[in-house]
Amino acid sequence: MHAELVVMPPLQIHNVCLPPEQTTFRKLKHSLAEIFFPDDPLYRFKNQTWFRKFILALQFFFPVFQWGSEYNISLLRLGFIIDFLSKATLVGFMAGAAVIVSLQQLKGLLRIVHFTSKMGIVPVISSILNAIYVQWSWQTIVMGSGFLLFLLTTRHISIRKPKLFWVSAAAPLTSVVLSTLLVFLLKSKTQEIPIIGRLPKGLNPPSLNMLCFSGPHLAVAIKTGIITGILSLTEGIAVGRTFAALKNYQ
């Protein structure tokens, strides 16, 4: 048997073309660009408006503007602290803070004029007991206790019937309006209840000319303001996360 071999043409797998010749200067320029600028530094500026180009250029020369837009306050959320605290610990902290705040509110409820400036429980209770026969006013106590009971009742109604959420929301403003009307109508019989009095009409005069940006204590005032603001923000976020942790919110 004879086998006929078919002669097939050679297959062209790859067709490689030689690159165009470059001068030494162009080769050096290309090498330096690959080393120092592997990506096109002006890529972000292409097809952008002039305002966007200005913002990108400002962020390129002053990186703080780019950091400011991407900065977050995750460090101030105190999540890592709350994750390690139990519910009993959170309730204890909240109860202690609530007791201190409640005792401080007794100054207005009992109409105590000379009240201690300390935050401890013992000084506050001592100040309250020392003013029983001197500064307490039964009119103020009755009105304050009545509206406090009204607020607690509306809150209980909103909890029992969620559809009536507006009852608890409108209760504070309603209390202010009703208390004002009661004091106005019973003016002759409520002299022991302190009132603000007549308010002058118009806006307050501008106080811009009273600002002083000089002096030896300016730096201390700025530092104090910044630190106080950060602490207040941290405290507010921590309290919010505490309530969220108690309600199993995310």
Automatic annotation (TrEMBL):
Residues annotated as transmembrane: 50-68, 80-101, 108-129, 135-152, 164-186
Keywords (alphabetical) are: Membrane, Transmembrane, Transmembrane helix
The processes (GO biological process) annotated in the record are: transmembrane transport
Per the record, its GO cellular-component terms are: membrane
Task: Tell me the Pfam families matching this sequence.
Answer: Sulfate_transp (PF00916)
| Localization (cell) | Membrane
Task: Establish whether keyword Lipid biosynthesis is in the entry.
Answer: no
Q: Has the keyword Coiled coil been applied to this entry? A: no
Q: Which residues form the SLC26A/SulP transporter domain?
A: 75-250
Topology in membrane: Multi-pass membrane protein
The protein here is known as SLC26A/SulP transporter domain-containing protein
The organism of origin for this protein: Juglans regia (English walnut)
